[in-house]
Amino acid sequence: HFGPRPAHLFVVGAVDPDEVAGQIEEAFDSWADGPHTGVEVPAPGGVSRGGTVVVVDRPEQTQSQVRLAGPAYRRGAPVQFAAQVVNVTLGAGFTSRLVREVRVKRGLSYGVGSAFDTLRAGGLFSVSSFTKVETTGRLLSVMRQEVDRMRKRGPTKAELEKAQRYLAGLFPLRTETNESLAAVLADMALYGLGDDWLDRYRDRVHAVTRAEAQEAGAAYCF
Prior knowledge:
- The longest helix has 18 residues.
- The two termini are 34 Å apart.
- This protein is of the alpha+beta class.
- β2 and β3 form a beta hairpin.
- It is 45% helix and 12% strand.
- The radius of gyration is 21 Å and the shape is globular.
- α3 packs antiparallel against α4.
């Protein structure tokens, strides 16, 4: 699975292209072979909506960790921008629903959040938090309540617009260093995001409709 044929190399910074090309030839000239095409990753199979509950009993502990998780979309799927709006509204921001309901209103945990982790064939949506052992049931109930509410109704119009401003405003900060820009360029190549990914990112965020966000919430808020 490894070799120069399917590999990409990105160099970002104030460098001379010809000089860098020479250094690359010198460093990697002896590296040969490898597959002619990338590995075809099969799509994940269907997952039951019913889910499974796993409890690990550790009587000596004073706190418990709680995770909710379910399948999500592949990196670069058309639903990605709508799903990110849902995620920011639900638990990816400090003013999100989960933070408000779990931390601010009830004081059940110092930290709570949601996230999408996506790869080429599929992804994972998760909600995570922690609390005292005796309040584990209450925490889980509130987490489930907010996830269910997002699945059934999606974000409000005000929440949609707020999430769009947040995502569009944050994006430039994620490409302001050479290191972060190289990482984005590598993702664009690895996941087939297209050469216009950077240029159109904010426009795609602002183009998300409330109906699209509701559909994303219904699909991935397990």
